[in-house]
Amino acid sequence: MAKIFDAEEVAKHNTAESCWVILYGNVYDVTNFLPEHPGGSKIILSLAGKDATEEYDPVHPPGTLEENLHPSAKLGQVNPDSLVKANVVQEVEKAVQGPPPLETLLNLDELEEVATKQVSKKCWAYYFSAGDDLISKRFNNSVYRDILLRPRMFVDCTDCDLSTTLLGHKVGLPIYVSPAAMARLAHPDGEQGIAKAAARFGAMQLISNNASMTPEQIIEGSPDGQVFGWQLYIQKDRAKSIAMLKRINAMKHRYKSIVLTLDAPVPGKRELDEKSNFDRSLTVEVGGKESGEKRPGGGGVGQQLFFGTAPDLTWAPTLAWLAEQTDLPIVLKGIQTHEDAYLAAKYAPQVKAIILSNHGGRALDTAPPAVHTLLEIRKYCPEVFNKIEVWVDGGIKRGTDVVKALCLGAKAVGVGRAALFSLGAGGQAGVERMFEILEAETATCMRLLGAKTISDLGPRFINTRRVERDIYDGDSGLEKKGLWSKL
């Protein structure tokens, strides 16, 4: 029979010499684990002697305890009557007030506004934050306003078909969920809730390497034909990446691509996220950083997620190594220049698609929005569109944004923060509401333009002159001898 501890007894073990924590009603001695914790020992010590479940649960996939702690670390159970209870009055008041009905929320900004009031400050700071002065984050969206639409008349717009294909797989929408980490910070439904919402609309979901649920859990119960991709951050310890790829290879009936992320080899400086972590009360389970190692620029959630990420990737060696680990199609995420788009196309057919992205403005501030890179490709190397699929993400708020990107040659458009905030606004139902809004707005835009299908869309439906004046206008680089040999 398990030993029962009073919370008062557990509270005495709050030092580096004797560190106990309560998780899910169980008492653990984590003293020996302190120097091994990837996020550093200080974060655990800030919760020493306390119930850490609320801080731990949203950011650790199930099985983390079993993988990292010896069975002997579990000492017993805590007497629930001895635990200090939360402020019940405050919780009741919050429940009575509650969020507005989802059907009254008419756009993605309203979903984000509701989520901001629902989620924790740390969750909001991690989702909302971006690099430095948030210039790229804001520009990702505002650039779409400078593209004008050119509607055609006398077109039968009775019907509108939003279905398309991605990597040869039929999907119901040209809108996919971008890799978005730590979904359970927003709502217990987590990444699986997003998956269930996406299934209802036939939308593809790219799963974050730093998801708060396991890849197996996320696809559990998903219908036949639902399409997922797995985001990969290659680790310094390649064995960890190899082990994960083996798991994904075993689920090819759902995971149809590997999304190799390139635009964040090191973490950007996200000040809101870093400030939210000054109290050291939140950590995430990632690998590769020794306890006590100094973290340049701070220690927010984003900083912790990057611990162990390999910054030494190069074209030919990395793609050759990846080909040894999986035969799934490769999608390169984070392309931001026409030169790299052209070079990526040279690696077809292993590379099947690229995602034009600046990491949601969360990496290098003042990096270009996807729209600029789309226009660069059209100007300098339009043949890329014929060799590989081009997807985009960043700044999508309206159906008109979706249509404008598709008119420029994008095959699909991703939403990341919008999915997380919608999850925070109402769990799975909130994400379904997001898809409802984007689906309706996209269809309305196409019908008013005079386009019946996704394949009808093209440059003739848009005026990009106001944006073209700002795109790169230097040497193409494509004619330089030897540059386009596989590096």
TrEMBL record:
Domain FMN hydroxy acid dehydrogenase: 100-467
UniProt cross-references to SMART domains, sorted A to Z: Cyt-b5
Top enzyme class: oxidoreductase
Pfam family, one: Cyt-b5
GO CC annotation: mitochondrial intermembrane space
Keywords associated with the record: Flavoprotein, FMN, Heme, Iron, Metal-binding, Mitochondrion, Oxidoreductase
Flavoprotein listed as a keyword: yes
Requisite cofactors: heme b; FMN
Keyword Flavoprotein appears in the UniProt entry: yes
InterPro entries (alphabetical): Aldolase_TIM, Cyt_B5-like_heme/steroid-bd, Cyt_B5-like_heme/steroid_sf, Cyt_B5_heme-BS, FMN-dep_DH, FMN_HAD, L-MDH/L-LDH_FMN-bd
Gene Ontology MF, one: heme binding
Quaternary structure and partners: Homotetramer.
Assigned protein family: Belongs to the cytochrome b5 family.
Protein name, entry field: L-lactate dehydrogenase (cytochrome)
